[in-house]
Fold these 2 entries.
Entry 1:
Amino acid sequence: MTIQWFPGHMTRARREIEAKLKLIDIAIELLDARVPLSSRNPMVDDILKGKPRLILLNKTDLADARTTDKWMAYFADMGHTSLAIDASTGTRVNEIPVRVKQLLHEKIARQISKGITPRAVRGLIVGIPNVGKSTLINRLAGRAIAATGDRPGVTKGQQWIKVGTEMELLDTPGILWPKFEDQHVGMKLAMTGAIKEQVINVEEVAFFAVKELTKRYWDSMSERFSLTNPPKDYDDADEIVRVMEDIGRKRGCLVSGGRVDLEKASGIILRELRAGNLGRITLESPEDMM
Ligand code: G4P
């Protein structure tokens, strides 16, 4: 489900997270490895207010592994511990409790030195819609707990889920909102499927996708769609549309008069991208910020 965010929703979401922060030792911030910047809430540092934090780059099965490594180095430079996971299959998910304990070792050591037996560390998963929060909670719990597609303000009774013997997790995640002011953020989230078809213009997103993908991943694009002619100028809209038409022709998206049905071609491009059929693709790299 796509959430329409208004200032009132953001205020409520923020309050909900702040209330949950009081209950936990560590925040687990979930990002989409394909768009680590666009899937990051712009106010996350302010909202989490210095709580110990583990950053998870999720959906690494769909992301470019080399760029994921660069992002991990980037977060390390910012002083954050990060881990690259795939919540849908569980890859490296079992390292989460280990990293959490490492991040909290000073607090735990202090408790032990005071003669207190440390209780299980308590965590909260936070992230924007569709980054995989519910999938991860279910994976960590080893059973279906969280309904996917949670909305802010739709709360149920909160419970602690045991993750092994030394960690507990709140069963409802903290839902954050993305950086809507930047139009490219919206486009990238739509490309990855985080913003749903009903609220986007498919052709507009596919146009943006073809521009980005031919620039960054021409080899994968040309192989998947049997293309031979890359855009000569990425800023020339006619050239991008020409590539979209080439794809449409290859996939038989034709209407009367031999014209290409761009809407149909756009749907195919986005479906194949999201399913990972174009290979592992990351749309943002730390170098873009330099
Ligand atoms: P949320 O709670 O943060 O909103 O996200 P949720 O767990 O509902 O996950 C959103 C979609 O992302 C789900 O797809 C889920 O299966 C998929 N997903 C989560 N983690 C991973 C991952 O590591 N790799 C891959 N490839 N997919 C992942 P869905 O149920 O099909 O929903 P949708 O595609 O219709 O949005």
Note: Strands lie at 26-32, 53-58, 81-84, 121-127, 160-163, 167-170, 174-175, 254-255, 259-260.
Entry 2:
Amino acid sequence: MSYPKADFVSSAWKDDLFRKKVVFCTGGNGTICSAQVRALVYLGADACIVGRNEQKTKNIAKELSEVRTNARVLGIGGVDVRQPRLLQTAIDRCVEELGGIDLLIVGAAGNFLASIEDLSPNAFKTVIDIDTLGSYNTVKLTLPHLVKSVQMQEAGNRGVGPSGRVIFVSATMHYTGYPLQAHVSAAKAAVDAIAVNFALEYGPFGVTSNIISPGPIGGTEGMRKLSMIEKIKEKEGRRVPLQRYGSVKDIADATVYLFSDAANYVNGEVLVVDGGAWRVLATGPDSGIQYPENVLTRNTSKI
Ligand code: HXC
């Protein structure tokens, strides 16, 4: 392999954890979702990423295919998750070319900062539709393949590791409320609800559904937007209890965990990956804990 494992994912994971598995991912050309897929591909999976932007999706698929020798990564652009017909065509192509869908990342999302008074009804509806209708379309249309994957796995016919796993990529701003994010908070709350309902309805078929809720992740579009309204530039990550922003690798590791057989009995859960940030955010975006220097520099040998 030409890339150091530590660049993408924890060295704790076995290299062939997802051998012969196929992951389908919406929003796959985003920074977080592409990192999730990159880790899975590195650990043996083949992948199909879909996105709206044709060229960007193709470029990222090519880059992902280079992290492991013989990796197969399809990038299908022009796919708006609000339109079931486009999604169905992409799913069909994934199944035809890669042989099925074992793992699903529901990641497509819309986001911009806007106050409630500035949001037009259509702007509100746009984000709600991308996030909630898009998530619903995605799980509904991939469901037959996820169930089939479980059946094949049970027959000893579908590689190593688990089958029929879904991760929804959500957020944390709806736990507390967040300025200029009413539309996104409403959408993400609904995404969480879809994920939990899906877990209950399809658990009996062996398909699990969980949520990863990233906090402030450095280098992402979401972080760039948040930094426009938070006074965090000068104190990078200081309001986060772990004293740093997250990395996409932190989200990739959570993804590998939930897709691995270490999470066989985890279903309908939320895994918040935010260094503890949302609990601080509960007191307001500008009033996060600023740890005093003597707390940070104290002699830990006496603790
Ligand atoms: C106000 C806006 C706007 C903006 C679009 N609209 N952008 N309103 N501020 N910046 C309004 C338009 O005026 C229009 O309303 C309506 O939204 C639809 O606009 P379209 O451009 O036709 O919509 P569409 O092309 O379907 O999608 C627009 C988009 C999308 C939702 C902004 O391009 C997008 O999602 N881009 C960003 C993707 C992104 O950031 N993803 C990461 C998500 S991270 P009118 O009334 O004029 O018709 C995440 C986790 C949280 O979700 C991160 C924390 C911040």
Note: The two ends are 43 Å apart (CA to CA).
